[in-house]
Amino acid sequence: MNSVICLLLTFCACAVGAIFGDGNPKNGIEDQRQLAPAEILQSVGTIYCDGALRGTATHVSLSSIAPSSRSSIILTAAHVIYHKTTGILFETCVYRPQGKRLSSIDFLKISPHDFKPQSKNKIQQASQDIIFVTLQKKLRGSGLILQEVEDTDNQLLLIGYNQNQDQISISRDCGQFTSESYETDLLLLHNCDAGRGASGGPILDARSGSVIAVHGGTFLINSSENNPFGAMQGAIADPEVLINQGRKIDSDVIAQLKRFIAYPSKNSQN
C-alpha cells in the first residue's frame, strides 16, 4: 500500500486537529469539549503572534524547581511561534492569561530548542516541539506542576483553545495509545479531542492534575481519502492510522527548564 504519512499540526487558524467519534458521519461529530473549570483555566492561556491566535500555553509551577524565582514561565509547543509556511519566527508574541484579550503579556525570553519548522522528518519534529517562555510580567497563581510519566492507565485531560466556541475548553475521558507506526518514547499518543488553536495546550493526568505532555498535533496515515481533514472529524481513534500526539514531559524537559531558570541570558534565544 502506497501510504503517505502526514503530520497535521494545529499551527494556526488554518490548521485542523482530530475530533474523535464513532466513525459515522450521519449522526454528526461527537465533540464533547466543554469550558475548562476555573481551577485549571487560571493556569492556562492563549498565544498571539503578529496579530493572530497561534496556540495555547500553560503557566508552569516553579515551587519545586526554583521556589525563589521571581519570573513567570509558560510552556507551549515550539511550532506556534513560527510561520507555518516560511518557517520564520514571528516578530511579536504575547501570552493572554485565560485567553483574555485585555491581559496580554509580552514574551521576554524563549528557551533554546532543536525544533526545525520545515523538517521533513515529522516524528522527530514532533519530538522537539516544546519550548519555555519567560514573560515580561509576573502571573497570578502558582501554575500547574510538571510530572514525568512514562506510561499511564489513568484518564487524560487536554486543555486547549476551542475555535468553535471561542474559549479554552477541556477534553475529558481520553487516554494514551501505543503504536508501531509512530514508535517513540518521546511522544504521548492520545484521543483527546483537539481543534484549531489547541497546539501547546497541556495534557494532564486526570488523577494528579499534573502536566504530563504538551499537545502538538495529529498524525494521519492516508492512502485513499481525498479530504484527509474531513476524515479527522468524528473518526474512530486508531494509533496506526489517525491519532493525536503530544511531547511528553521527561527528564530532558525538566533539565531544560532548570537550565533556562538558572542561566536565562545564556540559555535563551530571541
Sum up the structure in keywords.
signal; 10% helix; mainly beta; 270 residues; 9-stranded antiparallel β-sheet; disordered N terminus; Thrombin, subunit H; Peptidase_S1_PA_chymotrypsin; Peptidase_S1_PA; globular; 2 domains; Serine protease
Task: Describe the overall structure.
It is a single chain. The chain is mainly beta. 10% of the residues lie in helices and 34% in strands. It has two domains: 4-35 and 147-249, Thrombin, subunit H; 44-144 and 252-262, Thrombin, subunit H. It has helices at residues 38-41, 122-127, 228-231, 251-262; strands at residues 4-9, 19-20, 34-35, 44-49, 52-59, 73-76, 93-97, 105-110, 131-135, 156-162, 167-174, 176-177, 187-190, 202-205, 211-222, 233-235, 242-248. The strands form three sheets. Strands 1, 3, 10, 11, 12, 13, 14, 15 and 17 form a nine-stranded antiparallel β-sheet that branches. A six-stranded antiparallel beta barrel has the order 4-5-6-9-8-7. It is globular and about 50 Å long. This is Serine protease.
